[in-house]
Amino acid sequence: MSDPFTVQATEDAEAAARAADVTVREVSDLPGLAAVGDLFTTIWGKPSVSTELLRAFSKTQSYVGGAFRDGVLVGACVAFHAAPAQRSLHSHIAGVTPGTGGRGVGFALKVHQRAWALALGVDEIAWTYDPLVARNAHFNINKLAGRPAEYLPNFYGPMSDAINGDEDTDRVLVRWDLRSPAVAAACRSGRPGRSGRSGAPDAVVPVPLDIERLRAADPAAAHEWRLRVRESLGPYLAGGSAVGYDRAHGYLIHTPARTVPHTPTEGDRP
Fold first, then answer.
1. pTM, full prediction
2. Would you tell me the crossing angle of helices 51-59 and 30-44 to the nearest 10 degrees?
3. Domain positions in the chain
4. Contact 135, 175 (CB under 8 A)
């Protein structure tokens, strides 16, 4: 008999797909897998994941999910299993067709991925994101109730694609406890939740409003933001601080008792 928690997660995934006007399902056929790879190439401006690798992921029961609208692929997400003892999935890449952002497609994919993982007995999904991209911070921390856990400087090395440019690829590792009340509530309601503590923060780490536009207009200023956030947010995460996010201010830091890491420089956004 199915776990009631997993049954609810499946219902939440179906509801999120309906709200986004998509059908979300696993992709395992070769044409579908090729379409997933082509979608990522369109988004990042260069090949990211080969059809052969996606085929191997699908065959070994890793996650290759696609969101379809009127039979056309408009979003995809790929994840693979971490070490067996961790009961964790690492979500490596996800994206939606340009022009569909903000319509709930990405949310529908993640909620489907959660239901799929729970059905396999996986308790956690982890992934990385660029901490300078404000909309991704909001999506991961508020919309999904993910927990920032680790700062990874220049994690992928040079990527030189349409999104990352030639910048260092710093990432924040997010952990998604699939059975936590905050995650369950976020997936059920589709409304922003909170993964961190409530109350006034001990510190704030601002980020630019639109780092992608800034990279194009002023790469030097974008790099200064990279260093500033690395030097401030990194030590807070290493010290075990709980990190929330506010669109108007940036990262909200709640430090452990009697532990105050490096204080970031407060300043106006460029």
1. 0.89
2. 130
3. 4-195
4. no
**Which of 154, 181, 175 lies closest to 166 in space, CA to CA?**
154
Walking along the chain (270 residues) 10 residues at a time, the average pLDDT comes out as 86 96 97 97 91 96 97 97 91 91 90 97 97 97 97 90 79 98 91 66 96 92 96 97 96 80 46
Backbone angles phi, psi at 202, to 5 degrees: -80, -25
Look up the CATH number of domain 4-195: 3.40.630.30
CA dist 133 → 58, 72, 85, 202, 247 (Å): 30, 28, 32, 22, 11
Please give the sequence-ordered ranges of beta strands (E in DSSP) within 178-241, or none if there are none: 203-205
Query: For the CA atoms of the chain, what is the radius of gyration?
Result: 18
φ, ψ of residue 145 to 5 degrees: the values are 60, 35
Beta bridge partners of 151: 172
Q: Say if residues 113 and 77 touch (Cβ distance below 8 Å).
A: yes
Q: Tell me how far apart the alpha carbons of residues 22 and 72 are, in angstroms, rounded to a whole number.
A: 9
Three-class HEC string of 86-131: HCEEEEEEEEECCCCCCCCHHHHHHHHHHHHHHHCCCCEEEEEECC
